[in-house]
Amino acid sequence: MKSFRQAVEANDHAAIEALLADDVVFTSPVAFKPYVGKAITAAVLRGVSRVFTDFRYVRELTGEDGRDHALVFEARVGDRAITGCDFLHLDEQGRIDDFMVMVRPLSAAQALAEAMGAQFDRIVAEASGAAQADGA
Q1: Phi, psi (5° rounding) for residue 12?
Q2: Chain segment 49-75, per-residue pLDDT in tens
Q3: In angstroms, rounded to a whole number, what is the distance separating the alpha carbons of residues 72 and 51?
């Protein structure tokens, strides 16, 4: 998980996207339905990087089989401090095929939902452009 953590901390979106499986399932803390696919997940993660400030990982846990990871983070969304966890599962090729995020407290989750909502049109456009480029 070192490569993912380093890519996130370096804000290297190409490296982050390279670590995602094509069929990754991203479960957001503020959306009801999960997002499926590399293009939309990468676009959501770019949106999050525009919304979060002072982002840092503060703890990392790894499952016994080495394929399950939890990365605890702290950040700010506007004037709200947020604590969260990225739960990641790796497929047989070592790519992230399941990515679930949980955050607290509720006031910060609400601020995140509002900020990401403002990003939604851009996220969809980025994902659509990436999907078209992959299909070309």
Answers
A1: -95, 90
A2: 999 999 999 999 999 999 999 999 999
A3: 17
**Residues 102 and 85 sit within 8 Å (Cβ to Cβ):** yes
Average confidence (pLDDT) over 110-116? 95
Do the beta carbons of residue 40 and residue 26 sit within 8 Å?
Answer: yes
Give the H/E segment covering residue 121. helix 106-135
Residues in the chain: 136
CB-CB contact of 60 with 45 (8 Å): no
Instruction: Write out the H or E segment, with its range, that includes residue 112.
Output: helix 106-135
H helix or E strand, kind and range, residue 116 = helix 106-135
- The count of other CB atoms within 10 Å of the CB of residue 80 is 15
Task: Please report where in the chains the tokens 């998980």 appear, as a residue.
Answer: 1
Q: Which two tokens stand for residue 37?
A: 């696919």
